[in-house]
From TrEMBL:
Domain Heterokaryon incompatibility: 200-358
InterPro entries given in the database record: HET
Protein name as annotated: Heterokaryon incompatibility domain-containing protein
Length: 680
């Protein structure tokens, strides 16, 4: 890593001179805060004074350059500009490249155009109770024409922040040389000697780029016995070495690290440990979280290059000198100004799919971020140099009741939308990476886990929708059908949100939060073929056999109105209005479709318990005989299906609802027929 001179202020080219903060610009003025000291002040907008967000000073800096060579910044650095060289180093750093690598795929030899702009943030410093210059933000904008992204065809914006100012295997770190040990042996030794079972810490971290992961020391079938004799500390990556050092400082004798405690080339061991991951993290005394983008990054001595920027006050000519800019973090989109939210929410670690259950299952966490070290537990959140705060994070084992209804709500309303936004190096890891959490829920609920859904909550679990907005998702239904037909690798069936990203659970929430009488109108049987030994992990096939009221139509038989992307209002020939949330982004339904009605809500009946609700069989029987009560207050909802290539099979391609007050509702059943369909 190049060394930047922090003893002498950097030389700045004509373009970069604006980086030296001008305190007279934007109507700055001297204000007295104490008897002896003057402070810089601004008449800021009311929204900043109310604390809604920090105020931004946009600098007169606009640069067009291209990855990966960045010729404009390279030329500036060659000519002696320290900030051009510093900025080039940041843009080519592992952290920024990892963030870009999450989205940009198969660029080949094509250059990526990037627009670079700068602005300072001014506001109340979170940890020091004072107004001041908080950070310099490097904004990047990349046009969609210049790159391909995963499930995203829109333009990309990024910000880089420069701050101002049991039977499981563990690593025994009590001795001078770490070594692998069996947990059963640790317990046996403790019981034999009348001692308490010793504590262990767990590590949650990012492996990083493929080259970083490949170079990381890992336990294999060939190296396992050798590593039980000893692991030279110098062979460990920077992240794991630091975890060993911190655990020793905590006087914790054992450490769990996935790369060392799971035999990486043993599929059976990998599947067994993946299913037990929730137990590993919930039983750990503490989880250490490294927010670095690579396993080779040291979180105790993070490689945060700094640059010294010259400063001369234009309000007080006696004030001159320099200030330091230090790399803090980068993230897609806008970065939160709160340091703990910036550290955690903007980190690549939080985007990592496997990290989700690691932090929600942990008893407590020590998080090593670019700003501070943070401590999180269910009752308190704190950072160094900060008073304890009440920022709440999602902890399931200690923070959620064991009431089944609350747990179903937690899974459907919180876990599903959050987890679906996570990223995976291997998409087929979506089910294994949450299998430890699923095992915990299954035990507490005593319910059957079905490809990311729960048998007794299947009716609500099916009515998720796909977040689609301009430039995201599948542009056309044919793109969606092509993805659904791909079975290598097989991730999840079309009716499970596990195979999708950016899932929305608004309809689930509406059904849950309503005070109306919620009733099933279908009979569902599920079939799942598990792939491997983990019953909560990968699957090779799944289908639903659903008997319910159905309505078949084509685009030529209906009128359509599309009030928004992925949202279609259709009028059936019978005059009934149906609202569809499609899993693709176009505004039209094209082809042959089927509505399958799965449930209803009776707004006039708010007192019935679930046990009092009408049985599914009688509803379907009455439907066949044309005798089902058509109360004006009943709304209906269900799935939008499209025929699949397999004979007699369908794909789920969206959800729908029909409101009684908007020309639909239970009246839809007049035009339906009872049918059994197979959804894959």
């Amino acid at each position: 890593m190049p060394l930047f001179n922090t003893r002498q202020p950097a030389s700045l080219c004509e373009r970069c001179k604006v980086v030296a903060f001008d305190d007279a610009e934007f109507e700055g003025f001297k204000r007295v805060k104490t008897k002896d000291r003057d402070f810089l002040g601004y008449d800021l907008p009311e929204k900043q004074q109310e604390g809604d967000e920090e105020f931004e000073f946009r600098l007169d800096f606009d640069l067009e350059d291209t990855f990966p060579h960045l010729p404009q910044l390279t030329q500036g650095a060659t000519n002696g500009c320290g900030f051009c060289g510093y900025l080039k180093h940041l843009l080519l750093s592992d952290d920024v490249q990892c963030r870009l690598g999450d989205l940009i795929v198969d660029r080949g030899d094509r250059e990526l155009s990037v627009s670079i702009f700068l602005f300072y943030r001014w506001g109340t410093w979170l940890f020091f109770d004072s107004d001041g210059l908080d950070s310099l933000v490097v904004g990047l904008y990349m046009n969609a024409r210049d790159f391909q992204t995963i499930d995203n065809n829109g333009d990309l914006e990024m910000e880089i922040i420069l701050s101002v100012g049991s039977d499981q295997t563990l690593v025994d770190i009590a001795g001078p040389i770490p070594r692998l040990v069996y947990g059963a042996r640790i317990i046996a030794d403790a019981e034999r000697n009348g001692r308490e079972i010793p504590k262990y810490a767990a590590l949650s971290y990012c492996w990083g780029l493929e080259s970083h992961a490949r170079d990381q020391l890992k336990t294999t079938t060939a190296s396992e016995e050798r590593m039980r004799l000893g692991i030279p500390i110098e062979c460990l990556t920077g992240t794991i070495r630091d975890a060993v050092q911190v655990a020793r400082a905590f006087q914790i004798p054992f450490l769990w690290v996935d790369s060392l405690c799971i035999i990486q080339d043993d599929i059976a061991d990998w599947e067994r440990e993946a299913s037990r991951m929730g137990i590993v993290y919930s039983n750990a005394f503490v989880t250490f979280c490294s927010l670095g983008s690579s396993c080779h990054t040291s979180f105790l001595q993070p490689p945060s290059p700094t640059i010294l920027i010259p400063f001369q006050s234009y309000l007080n000519d006696k004030v001159k000198g320099a200030y330091v800019l230090r790399y803090s973090t980068c993230a897609i989109g806008k970065v939160n100004a709160n340091h703990i939210l910036t550290d955690v929410s903007s980190s690549r670690w939080l985007q990592r799919g496997w990290a989700h259950q690691e932090y929600v299952m942990s008893a407590r966490l020590v998080i090593f971020g670019p700003h501070f070290v943070h401590f999180l537990c269910p009752s308190i959140t704190a950072a160094e140099n900060e008073k304890p705060a009440s920022v709440q994070w999602q902890f399931l084992l200690r923070g959620v009741a064991t009431d089944p209804e609350e747990l179903y709500n937690e899974w459907g309303k919180s876990i599903a939308p959050i987890y679906s936004d996570r990223q995976f190096t291997k998409p087929e890891d979506a089910l294994p990476a949450i299998s430890g959490l699923a095992r915990y829920f299954s035990t507490v609920l005593a319910d059957e886990y079905i490809a990311g859904l729960w048998k007794r909550d299947m009716l609500r679990g099916l009515i998720w929708s796909y977040c689609t907005y301009p430039g995201t998702g599948f542009p056309h239904i044919n793109d969606l059908l092509k993805r659904l037909s791909q079975r290598n690798p097989y991730i999840a069936p079309s009716w499970s949100w596990m195979g999708r990203r950016n899932v929305d659970m608004d309809l689930y929430r509406n059904v849950q939060d309503t005070r109306g009488d919620f009733q099933s109108l279908c009979d569902i049987e599920a079939t799942v073929d598990v792939h491997g030994q983990n019953p909560f992990g990968r699957i090779s096939y799944a289908q639903l056999r659903v008997t319910a009221p159905t309505y078949t139509f084509s685009d030529t038989k209906i009128s359509q109105n599309a009030p928004g992307i992925g949202y279609v209002e259709i009028s059936l020939p019978e005059g009934i209005v149906v609202f569809c949330n499609t899993d693709w982004a176009s505004r039209r339904l094209e082809g042959q479709f089927k509505l399958i009605v799965t449930g209803s809500v009776d707004w006039e009946n708010t007192t019935k318990s679930r046990a009092q609700r009408k049985a599914v069989g009688s509803v379907l029987g009455s439907l066949r005989e044309g005798e089902f009560s058509k109360k004006a207050s009943i709304d209906v909802y269900g799935l939008l299906l499209h025929v699949a290539p397999q004979d007699g099979r369908f794909y789920r391609v969206g959800v729908f609802n029909s409101y009684s007050q908007k020309g639909g509702g239970i009246q839809l059943l007049d035009s339906c027929e009872a049918e059994t369909v197979h959804i894959i």
